[in-house]
Amino acid sequence: MRKNYTVLFVMLFSAFIAGGLGLQNLFDSAMIIGVSLGTVCLFCAIYFAGRSQKTQ
What is the maximum span of the chain, computed from C-alpha positions, in angstroms? Predict the structure, then answer.
């Protein structure tokens, strides 16, 4: 059975962005960290989406 991690990384992307917005009042750099980690997750989602398209 093949696993597709694209949906997981897209959900992590939105969770990191929401977490950065939610913790913005507690930590000064929460939004920068949230956007950075979200961008990494978005690139991972793009990688796995392209990889699953290539194997089909």
Answer: 46
Q: At what angle do helices 6-22 and 30-55 cross, to 10 degrees?
A: 170
Give the model confidence (pLDDT) of 6-56 as tens digits: 999 999 999 999 999 999 999 899 999 999 999 999 999 999 999 887 766
End-to-end alpha carbon distance in the chain: 14
Determine if residue 51 is left, alpha or beta; phi over 0 gives left, psi from -120 to 50 gives alpha, anything else beta. Answer: alpha
- CB of 41 closer than 8 Å to CB of 9: yes
Tell me how crowded residue 52 is: count the other CB atoms within 10 A of its CB. Answer: 14
If you search the block for the tokens 């929460």, which residue do you land on? 30
